[in-house]
Amino acid sequence: MKRLLMILILGVVVVAFAQAQGERTAVPADMLSEIGLNDKAAVLLVSFGTTHDDTRAVTIDALYDKVRLIYPQLTVARSFTSRIILRRLKARGLEFDSPIEAMEKLRAQGITHLVIQSTNIIEGEEMESLRRDAETMRPFFKVIRLGTPLLYSVEDAEHVVDILVARHPADVEQNAHILFVGHGTEGPATAIYSQLDYMFKAAGHANHHVGTIEGYPTLDNALAQIQAAMGKQVTLVPLMFVAGDHAKNDISVDWKEALEDAGLQVQLNIEGLGEVPEVQNIFLAHLRYALQHRTRDIIEKKTEYAGQAD
Q1: How confident is the model at residue 18 (pLDDT cuts 50, 70, 90)?
Q2: How many CB atoms lie within 10 A of CB 82?
Q3: What is the fold, at CATH topology level, of the domain defined by 17-151+275-297?
Q4: CATH architecture of 169-268
Q5: What pTM, to 2 d.p., does this model score?
Q6: Distance of CA 219 to the CA centre of its chain
């Protein structure tokens, strides 16, 4: 049964997904075929983390179990980036590693080739921090590669839009609306949420909206769209990997109350993106791509461009 499930998962990942980075960004290079007799390979799954056991089981743990099933020949480890969450879990007797700690342990186990796959949604501050951690540890491994976050390419975003519309359809006849709530960031990466909102509308889903807690679009931006459409009902859905504190407090309480104060009937559909099998498969596709491709740095690309110009 396990073998059948693994084959089905691999089939979905290989057939349904292809990360569109293109030859300018990455080149084919199968890491597993490059491993020597004394080399060992591993996958490190990295999440922001959560103190909520219920959502961790169906998101972070679920993806971890899938990776172990698909790659039984590899060591699979995981880590959390939030120091606050790590501290709170430790106080409860639950030991999780930071990315640096996890990489140090993998090094001590003799791992020489490492692929790091994050469950981040966007290429924001958390990914920047993770890339710095990887650079810090790069001298201690023969190869370190990083898989990309959920919403990395235009194709990723388009696919996520399709998944979310299918999973959370809006009752247009009743003028009901769906509002996906992301975390957001202060940096330019917050633009991906506006891109998603635009993609919903461009695909004909005018009753699907995107807002963020700490970025743009804001709650007020989303509310303005719903009110302009004369909407009376709205369902709040987290646009986050886990349904933790933000989902159970900011979304389920603060946003719900604010929308109700604006005269809307509000429903909640609180689940993390990491619970959705199709979303899990996008992360698996990104991991598989990282295993099979080497990212080219800017100097390598510029050198090639210079040669073509000649």
Answers
A1: very low
A2: 17
A3: Rossmann fold (3.40.50)
A4: 3-Layer(aba) Sandwich (3.40)
A5: 0.91
A6: 22
